[in-house]
Amino acid sequence: MPEGPSLVLLREAAERFRGHIVREVSGNSRQDLARMRGREVLGVRTWGKHFLLEFDDFSMRIHLMMFGSWLIDERKPVLPRVSLRFDNGELNFYACSVKFVEQPLDEVYDWRADVMSDQWDPRLARRKLKALPDMLACDALLDQQIFSGVGNIIKNEVLFRIRVHPATRIGDLPSRKLGQLIAQAREYSFDFLAWKRIYELRRHWLVHTRGTCPVCGGPIRKVYMGRTNRRTFFCTHCQKNYSAEQAPAR
């Protein structure tokens, strides 16, 4: 699933269509795609994993889901979910969710929750986390209302960076570690973006899909954990489970 930094790259590439008219539209989406024909793109925005094209009285929202993709001025040999043609090129999306947002985007999205946004608010993230003391750290990082744009790769790498076991409950994290989790959710996302720009992202993975811990040399465990049941990679030696320390003696 494309994560927030990848959507930023899409937004940057699609910015060329701002101010241009949709000349033709097609695709196999069940949405009324024809309503975009003849309309001017007023804004190109992202919120976490949502890509947004803004028109004067509605917006098109693209969610790339698990296997979605996009191409500019190119096409795959399959019918796109939605294809938009402009005077200066075309934008094609595949295997994605397409929806229309009827309200103004500022009424729908809280940009303070987007880890890639200039409006990101770490204090708001801390307040939300404090209200969820029983949530596992691995689930908290994937909660899009707290860390919009964070995906599974970022989750695994952030928890390793701060040496926290993914099964630690948020309420058991020391205040310093909670602050590190919040800070690294954003910092690693921008590192992710920088590495992806130069096609070096995988080279920098420390635990995600890895077999050996780069710090202690021990094995990396892979489990499906938490309410999200997503693949979780971690080192049992280097990443501390603060909740295990709080468990009563038997």
Task: Write a brief caption for the model.
With 250 residues, the chain is an alpha+beta fold.
List keywords for this structure.
DNA-binding; 7 helices; 250 residues; N-terminal domain of MutM-like DNA repair proteins; four-stranded antiparallel sheet; DNA repair; single chain; Helicase, Ruva Protein, domain 3; glycosidase; elongated; nuclease
Care to describe what's here?
The chain has 250 residues and is of the alpha+beta class. The chain folds into 2 domains: 4-108, MutM-like, N-terminal (N-terminal domain of MutM-like DNA repair proteins); 111-245, Orthogonal Bundle (Helicase, Ruva Protein, domain 3), CATH 1.10.8.50. The chain has helices at 4-14, 105-108, 122-130, 137-142, 152-161, 175-197, 242-246; strands at 24-26, 43-47, 50-54, 59-63, 69-72, 82-86, 89-94, 97-101, 221-225, 230-234. The strands form 3 sheets. Strands 1-6-7-5 form a 4-stranded antiparallel beta sheet, covered by helices on one side. Helix 1 (4-14) packs across helix 6 and helix 5 (152-161) packs across helix 6. The longest helix is centred in the C-terminal third of the chain and has 23 residues, at 175-197. It is elongated and about 60 Å long. The model has no long low-confidence stretch (mean pLDDT 95).
